[in-house]
Amino acid sequence: MSDLLSRRLAVLGERANLSLLGQCLHGIERECLRVDAQGQLALTDHPVALGAALTHPQITTDYSEALLEFITATDTDVTRTLDELEKVHRFTYGRLEGELLWSPSMPCRLPPEELIPIARYGSSNIGRLKHVYRRGLAVRYGKTMQCIAGIHYNFSLPEAIWPLLQALEGDSQAPRDYQSARYIAMIRNFRRYSWLLMYLFGATPALDVNFLRGRPHQLDSLDADTLYLPWATSLRMSDLGYQNNAQSGLTPCYNGLDSYLDSLRQAVSTPYPPYAAIGTKRNGEWVQLNTNMIQIENEYYSSIRPKRVTYTGERPLQALMARGVQYVEVRCLDIDPYLPVGIDLDEARFLDAFLLYCALQDSPPMDGGECRASTDNFQLTVKEGRRPGLQLQRRGQPVGLRDWAGELLENIGALSELLDTVHGGDAHRRALDAQRSKVEDPERTPSARVLADLRASGDSFTRFALRQSRAHAEHFRREPLAAADRQRFEALVQQSLGEQAELEAADQGDFDTFVAAYQASILGLLSV
């Protein structure tokens, strides 16, 4: 444990400050495909009984009409966060009319690309913009890759922590700038250590052969329908689905918020020749928002993002530039196919301790060599993380994954103890012990469990996933929502449908003008 981490923990452990760590905020977004009873991708529209995907605060869609996204509010108690996620699932299952929610991150056997339905959000300008953005993803990366699902974990430290730490360090920056700098430092440490999350929680060592659409690959065949890698933890987070494209040069080392924002501003405003060759329209119909390296900020694929809640009509870049970093969004988590909502309390409690460690541990700037090594460590772990004797790179030297994992868990233990002191009990220590057991015995990891299950049952990946999906459907349907919760969700459905109708009735101006103004909002930032 570094001296700086020890001093920060000592301050936060003082009686007057101890309650602050109980005010960290959590939020979860879970994506999942709708499939029919046989495990085929649902080609039906987003169910009206779930509300309007454009305006519903908790039930929306991501890329496809069939790719649902469930969103919780933020809460200081992750138990309540997971309880809310469970209720969203229960309500949804009450409206699916025989369809299922696909249990793992990697998709079911998909139909031909032209049949995969892109999400639609109605006739308002903002709804059309969201649809055209997704059409752009289709022409740039293909529809198949966009059907991968995951879990996003949003996390923030309480605002009152930052002045304490700033005073401890004698830092003279403006408070907002100090807070942003600390979150960016947290992201640097996340990049250093996030390979550990892929080892512990990666759950996609196998996939349906159809996913690769006949492209060359270096995967092994488990059976006629299943491809895998024997030591893989998360093929979802590998470079499997990504072709060489405009994003290959977008790997910020997060040495400052300004440099991160500059890289994104350039990416959303700089034309990329292959996309320019496609153009924005075909036969008068929009196929992508623009021909730049990325159409909008969210197109940048990363394992973690600095975030700030946006105002109506404000872009993420504008919010970060104006008010700094407010929280982080962790985006690399696989859905655990053995868990009905894809994540459980042990994982969430460990994530809290892990993210606090990243935030409070010393985090010097990363040079190009360490930046590349962090990317290499991550990619090596997702493809070979359980390989006996696997070596990673740390400060230019080889280190065993298991040795480094043990050291990290030992240091994270101090955060788990502090969180247990705040919340009472020993739940965070037990969550940490559960992760230690996976390091000691790789067969306890979700990725190893999936492969063991496939081998023991003789099931293909798709049959295994369908079995789990049916079991989860029974779990949710066995215990319907309480009347008060059902009424609350039904009210949200009607509210969202009304809000979408109002947007469509109030729209002024044509769509081309709307897109031009949207693009101009970023061009204006380039001169700031």
UniProtKB/TrEMBL annotation:
Gene3D superfamilies per UniProt: 3.30.590.20
Organism, scientific name: Pseudomonas mangiferae
Protein name, UniProt field: Glutamate--cysteine ligase
Keyword Glycoprotein included in the entry's annotation: no
Entry-linked HAMAP family: Glu_cys_ligase
Record's keyword terms, sorted: ATP-binding, Glutathione biosynthesis, Ligase, Nucleotide-binding
Family stated for the protein in its record: Belongs to the glutamate--cysteine ligase type 1 family. Type 1 subfamily.
GO CC entries: cytosol
Catalytic activity as recorded in UniProt: L-cysteine + L-glutamate + ATP = gamma-L-glutamyl-L-cysteine + ADP + phosphate + H(+)
A biological-process GO annotation: glutathione biosynthetic process
Recorded superkingdom: Bacteria
Record-listed E.C. numbers: 6.3.2.2
SUPFAM superfamilies: Glutamine synthetase/guanido kinase
Broad class of enzyme this protein falls into: ligase
Record keyword Lipid metabolism present: no
Domain Glutamate--cysteine ligase span(s) in chain numbering: 10-379
Pathway(s) served: Sulfur metabolism; glutathione biosynthesis; glutathione from L-cysteine and L-glutamate: step 1/2
A UniProt-annotated Pfam family: Glu_cys_ligase
MF terms (GO), sorted A to Z: ATP binding; glutamate-cysteine ligase activity; metal ion binding
